[in-house]
Amino acid sequence: MGFEVDAVDRIEIHCGPANAASAGVARKLGYRHEATLGRRMRLADGTLRDTMIWTMFAADYPESPAARIPISAFDAAGRQLL
Questions:
Q1: With contact defined as beta carbons under 8 Å apart, do 52 and 17 qualify?
Q2: Distance (Å, rounded) from C-alpha 55 to C-alpha 75?
Q3: Are residues 13 and 26 in contact, defined by beta-carbon separation less than 8 angstroms?
Q4: pLDDT value for 9
Q5: Helical residues (DSSP H) of 1-82, grouped into ranges
Q6: What is the pTM (predicted TM-score) of this model?
Q7: DSSP one-letter code for 74
Q8: Where are the domains of the chain?
Q9: Per residue in 48-82, pLDDT tens?
Q10: E-strand spans in 27-78?
């Protein structure tokens, strides 16, 4: 949606390193693991955990697996954008 409707240049997915399912989704869609930031996210109990950052740029999107997923988008009035 960000690339096709809002014309953004970069989209990030953030997840914890222990969250293999979320990291797997990012990988499967063609996002690149850009960094793991240490002690970046504070949990509800106050402890800090690392955060993985997965990135895709607009230039890479057309050839990515993410671009092959059918999407629909609507504005607040219900008009179809895509």
A1: yes
A2: 26
A3: yes
A4: 98
A5: 20-29
A6: 0.89
A7: B
A8: 10-68
A9: 999 999 999 999 999 999 999 999 999 999 999 98
A10: 32-42, 48-57
Q: Predicted confidence band at 14 (pLDDT cuts at 50, 70, 90)?
A: very high
Structural tokens at position 63: 């050839």
Secondary structure (3-state) at 27: helix
Q: Which of 53, 58, 60 minimizes the C-alpha distance to 12?
A: 53
Rounded Cα distance between 75 and 81, Å, is 7
pLDDT score for 8: 98
The band of 36, judged by pLDDT with boundaries at 50, 70 and 90, is very high
Residue 28 neighbours by CB distance under 10 Å: 10
Contact predicate 26/34, CB 8 Å: no
**Structure-token pair, residue 22:** 């979320």
